[in-house]
Write a structure and sequence with these properties.
This protein is an all-beta fold. The protein has strands at residues 10-20, 23-33, 40-50, 61-66, 74-83. It has no helices and five strands. A five-stranded mixed β-barrel has the order 1-2-3-5-4.
């Protein structure tokens, strides 16, 4: 059982901030059903993700993957840039 490793969480979102060195802010949107009224509501969460090569810019669509804690707020890493901003 030495080489058995669980698959990590992967989520997709849009970069909203890239002003820090090697860090980007990624917003992930999901739809959640209201418990009483049944209407679908957009819920947004912001994640700080590690971008080793500083390749991301605001507006890019990226895929991020869960990783070990890299700082106080960074628990995610940019795995790939799906679509560059125009």
């Amino acid at each position: 059982m030495a080489d058995v490793r669980k698959s990590r969480k992967i989520i997709t979102g849009n970069v909203v901030g890239a002003s820090m060195d090697k860090t980007v802010i990624v917003t992930v949107e999901r739809l959640a059903k209201h418990p009483r009224y049944g209407k679908y509501i957009k819920k947004r969460v912001k994640y700080s993700a590690h971008d080793e090569t500083n390749q991301c810019a605001p507006g890019d669509k990226v895929s991020i993957i869960a990783t070990r804690p890299l700082s106080k707020t960074k628990r995610w890493r940019v795995s790939e840039v799906i679509e560059k901003a125009k």
